[in-house]
Amino acid sequence: MTETIPVGHPLAVRADHILDELAACNITHVVTVPDFVQMSVHAKLREGYLPSVDVIPTSTEDEAVVIAAALHLGGANPVVIIQNQGLYACVNNLRAIGLDCGLPIFMMIGQFGREESNFGHDPAKSQRRIVRMLEPLLDTLEIPIFRLERPSDIGNVRRAYETSREKSWPTALVIGVPTAWT
């Protein structure tokens, strides 16, 4: 039997490994505005990699946050998959629903626009504002940050999910490198 070689940057985390972690968290729904950085994750979901998980595409990140909150209130375990600029667009809903209401909005946020020379390094040193300002904004909102920068960070998927549930609070798993195609 031959092993599939991941296609992507050497630091890229395999999409199937990310989805296996989401399955271990008993994720029931993926609510998303598709993210370029996590495109291989979306492709695996479309292929039926997690057949028991419902994928809900939305038009805006505001919708994604509200739908995830409603799913949680109904007893489901959703994850919101968006990119950094989408987070900037939905800050008010995230504040009102996640922070003010104390709901566990578990987000996977792709670092869209991050230059390859910054992969594996401090995103605060990026030359691109869209990348540099993500973590300071999350800190301002008091949202715990977990990074997925390389394969050895895979445990942060579960840590981010569990922290969100334990604290009944939003958490952010920041995907720093485009996920690998397998």
UniProtKB/TrEMBL annotation:
InterPro entries: THDP-binding. GO terms for molecular function: magnesium ion binding. CDD domains: TPP_PYR_POX_like (cd07035). This is Thiamine pyrophosphate-binding protein.
